[in-house]
Design brief:
The protein is an alpha+beta fold and about 250 residues long. It is built from 8 helices and 7 strands, in the order H-H-H-H-E-H-E-E-H-E-E-H-H-E-E. It has helices at about 5-15, 25-55, 60-75, 80-95, 105-125, 150-160, 195-200, 210-220; strands at about 105, 130-135, 140-145, 165-175, 180-185, 225-230, 235-240. The strands form 2 sheets. It has a 5-stranded mixed beta sheet, with helices on one face. A two-stranded antiparallel ribbon has the order 1-3. Strand 4 (about 165-175) and strand 5 form a beta hairpin.
Length: about 250
């Protein structure tokens, strides 16, 4: 019944996808509903495709190299081989276990998958890779799956390993000014300003996974990735999740 401009604007600002004022025709209402349902289905298909693409980023050589390391430890340190096998299994579950596309997972669970990946790489490269966590206690937040993994893996692969002496990855979580912040920082080779601008678009091949995460975060929270980098100094990627957007169950906006 309320059809003033202010009423309509307020409805959209509150999260409405469409607005139909009385009196209205039944056919118009049904067409609008069908359009919204179609948009939702298209969005879900996009998420399916992008997540499948992310899962496809697992390189065969990573699996083979990890299995080779496990075989070596089987002969020299069976206990370590068993631990590494557990980490590999956990890492792969982090990539493939999610079947509900609207599902969010606890941050702790995503960090567990990330830790498995880092433990595997630490076993393979030893002193060339160091990683630390700075986690503020009692922070509870759910995030889309496969959010941190691509960021951390990108930091290791393209930040730390090209650096002859290796480096360190820091993962920090804290709350400030009504939002939860998650930061991945490395002291690797860094990027030029030109390359940094390309990371979030289609022009730069190593930015594909990062671009995917950036788009998904915008769809959930209205904020994408904040990236800062300096050549020979490293790269810092930050996620901002407003407290009012944190819910147990949350679907991307249509």
């Amino acid at each position: 019944v309320r059809n003033r401009t202010d009423d309509i604007v307020s409805a959209f600002e509150a999260g409405a996808n469409d607005y139909l004022a009385k009196p209205f025709a039944r056919r118009e209402m049904l067409v609008r509903v069908r359009t919204l349902l179609t948009l939702k289905q298209v969005m879900k298909q996009v998420v399916i495709s992008e997540r499948q693409f992310l899962q496809a980023q697992i390189k065969p050589h990573f699996i083979l190299n990890t299995l080779n390391a496990i075989m070596v430890f089987c002969r020299t340190n069976p206990n370590r081989a068993a631990e590494l096998m557990d980490e590999l299994g956990n890492y792969l579950r982090g990539k493939f276990v999610f079947t509900n596309l609207d599902q969010l997972i606890p941050l702790e669970q995503e960090l567990d998958f990330v830790n498995s990946y880092l433990a595997i790489e630490k076993t393979r490269f030893d002193e060339k890779l160091e990683f630390v966590y700075e986690l503020e206690p009692n922070i509870s937040v759910n995030i889309p799956p496969l959010t941190l993994q691509p960021i951390v893996e990108n930091a290791v692969k393209h930040g730390i390993y090209p650096k002859e002496e290796g480096g360190k990855v820091e993962i920090s979580v804290w709350e400030e000014e009504g939002a939860v912040f998650i930061r991945v920082r490395d002291n690797g080779v860094g990027m030029t300003e030109e390359k940094l601008q390309e990371v979030l678009n289609d022009k730069y091949h190593i930015g594909i996974g990062i671009q995917n995460v950036h788009k998904r975060l915008i769809s959930y929270y209205g904020y994408g990735l904040s990236i800062r980098s300096q050549v020979k100094e490293g790269t810092e990627v930050t996620i901002r999740i407003p407290r009012e957007k944190i819910k147990d169950t949350l679907e991307p906006t249509e």
